[in-house]
């Protein structure tokens, strides 16, 4: 999926806020709140993990698409934009993963 396609999907998800939950899965998830979206993301991630461990490439590809879609819905439910996530990835470019981990903000609460 190109960056354009990812942007279009994020825009579609944002536009579904307040849409009819009977006709839009995205609207249904957003109306249910961040916890539902987060649980659905975790469920889809687990399904992707299972396919990765099983080594089923085609099913992993399909589950990974579900994961990416549900990640975007969870971010939207939490008012975090795709641009913010991509900016964070860009900020990390060229730094080692070990140094980056040490510099991460501590979790709130
Ligand atoms: N990429 C997706 C996408 N991937 C998965 N899903 C939906 O995610 C849902 C969850 O899948 P499950 O198999 O877990 O469904 P389920 O078991 O019935 O759900 P639960 O009972 O567990 O809650 C299904 O209804 C899938 O259709 C998606 N729904 C929407 N999109 C994209 O979002 C756009 C807008 O969709 P709507 O909001 O539905 O108009 C679409 O055009 C697509 O581009």
Short descriptors:
single chain; 109 residues; Helix Hairpins; binds phosphoribosyl ATP
Task: Give a verbal description of the structure.
It is a single chain. The protein has 109 residues and is mostly helical. It has one domain: Orthogonal Bundle (Helix Hairpins), CATH 1.10.287. It is built from six helices and no strands. The protein has helices spanning 3-15, 25-32, 34-54, 57-77, 82-92, 97-103. Helix 1 (3-15) packs across helix 4 and helix 3 runs antiparallel to helix 4. The longest helix is centred in the middle third of the chain and has 21 residues, at 34-54. Phosphoribosyl ATP binds next to helix 1, helix 2 and helix 4.
Which helices and strands appear, and what pairs or packs with what?
Blueprint: H1 3-15, H2 25-32, H3 34-54, H4 57-77, H5 82-92, H6 97-103
User: Domains counted in the coordinates: how many?
Assistant: 1
Count of DSSP H/I helices: 6
Give the CATH superfamily.
MazG-like
What does the overall shape look like?
Answer: globular
Bound molecules: phosphoribosyl ATP
User: Largest sheet at a glance?
Assistant: none
> How big is the Rg?
16 Å
β-strand number? 0
Mean pLDDT over the full residue set: 93
GO molecular function: ATP binding; phosphoribosyl-ATP diphosphatase activity
EC number: 3.6.1.31
Keywords: Amino-acid biosynthesis, ATP-binding, Cytoplasm, Histidine biosynthesis, Hydrolase, Nucleotide-binding
Family: Belongs to the PRA-PH family.
In short:
By secondary structure, this protein is an all-alpha fold.
């Amino acid at each position: 999926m190109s960056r354009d396609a990812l942007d279009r999907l994020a825009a579609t998800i944002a536009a579904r806020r307040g849409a009819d939950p009977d006709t839009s899965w995205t609207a249904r998830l957003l109306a249910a709140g961040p916890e539902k979206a987060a649980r659905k993301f975790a469920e889809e991630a687990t399904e992707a993990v299972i396919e990765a461990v099983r080594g089923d490439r085609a099913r992993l590809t399909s589950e990974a698409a579900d994961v990416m879609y549900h990640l975007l819905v969870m971010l939207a439910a939490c008012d975090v934009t795709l641009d913010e996530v991509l900016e964070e990835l860009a900020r990390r470019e060229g730094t080692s993963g070990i140094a980056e981990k040490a510099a991460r903000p501590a979790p709130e609460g």
